Amino acid sequence: MPDPSARLAGKKALVTGASRGIGRAIALRLAAEGAVVACGVRNEADGAALVAEIAAAGGTAVAILLDVTDAASVATGVERAARPERRIDVVVNNAGLAGTTPLDGDERSDLAFARIFDVNVTGTWRVLRAALPFLSDGARIVNLSSVSGRFGVPTQAAYCGAKHAVVGMTRALALELAPRKVTVNAVCPGWVDTEMGRRGIKGYGRAVGLSEDEAFAAAGKMAPLGEVLVPEEVAGLVAWLASDDARNVTGQSIVIDGGQVMP
Q1: What does the chain look like in DSSP terms, one character per residue?
Q2: 193: left (phi > 0), else alpha (psi -120 to 50), else beta?
Q3: Are 46 and 70 spatial neighbours (Cβ–Cβ below 8 Å)?
Q4: Is 72 exposed, middle or buried (0-12, 13-18, 19+ CB in 10 A)?
Q5: HSE, side-chain direction, 13 A CA sphere, residue 157
Q6: Angle (nearest 5°) at CA 238 between 233 and 244
Q7: How many CA atoms lie within 13 A of 60 on its CB side?
Q8: Residue 4's pLDDT is what?
Q9: Average pLDDT of the residues in 190-208
Q10: Distance between CA 144 and CA 175 in Å, rounded?
């Protein structure tokens, strides 16, 4: 059983994009800290495996099918996450999509641009709009942005634009929800060793003529501390923002990247 003294004991959390990478690490960490976690996934088998892992570690979780690009799926999934008390205390908008969208691309680049915005920006908006009736006073919202939401990257106008938009949305909603003591923050990771991160690093390597191993080493050296992050580090920051320790932190875009960005 979860430790009743754990800092998230008694909290109900929803994590989107929870089946792998950063989202999976966040779901595991919130459950370890005592939260009952609704794991938003698009594949039933992935959800079942994650819930079983959380249960084996003594936590409590449920898998819910939730596709952030489908308004009906979001509405149904969020309502399920709120059951049975019709309450959600923590929302983590982790579902995301990256990709290149060069300005000189063809119509496929236009489609990729729209898809990246739909997942990262409109998807976050859909989840929060659906969650609003269930949010407890003093709830915590954490939106996953990126260091690409703090600077530009060639050929990634859509991803950078979307992650900048997440930061702007975070700031606006922090003000909008402040009367209810609901905090809204964004987390901006640098390179993280996930499936999506590895694809990005591999693409970077191709662009500059490096092997995958060389590109991974170079990605780490972009930060003064010289490392590519692991998902658990990001999960730790999210867990802190979800806790009462961060009750007076809101409207922030917090970078976790080994010192690559120093605002």
Answers
A1: ---TTSTTTT-EEEESSTTSHHHHHHHHHHHHTT-EEEEEES-HHHHHHHHHHHHHTT-EEEEEE--TT-HHHHHHHHHHHHTTTT-EEEEEE---------TT--HHHHHHHHHHHIIIIIHHHHHHHHHGGGEEEEEEEEEE--GGGTS--TT-HHHHHHHHHHHHHHHHHHHHHGGGT-EEEEEEE-SBSSHHHHHHHHHHHHHHT--HHHHHHHHHHTSTT---B-HHHHHHHHHHHHSGGGTT--S-EEEESTTS---
A2: beta
A3: no
A4: exposed
A5: 11
A6: 130
A7: 14
A8: 62
A9: 86
A10: 18
Q: What are phi and psi of 83, to 5 degrees?
A: -70, 155
Residue 203 binned pLDDT confidence (cut-offs 50, 70, 90): confident
Does residue 23 contact residue 42 with C-beta atoms inside 8 Å? no
Active site residue 159: yes
Contact between 56 and 62 under an 8 Å Cβ cutoff? The reply is: no
141, 122, 96: which is closest to 231 by C-alpha?
Answer: 96
Q: What's the token pair of residue 103?
A: 């300005």
> How confident is the model at residue 3, as a pLDDT?
66
Q: What is the mean pLDDT of residues 7-35?
A: 97
Residue whose token pair is 């634009």: 161
Residue 50 in tokens: 């994650």
CA-to-CA distance for 48 and 180, rounded, in angstroms? 34
What are residue 185's DSSP bridge partners? Answer: 142
Residue from 117, 159, 191, 216 carrying the catalytic annotation: 159
Please give the model's pTM, rounded to 2 decimal places.
0.94
Contact 234, 191 (CB under 8 A): no
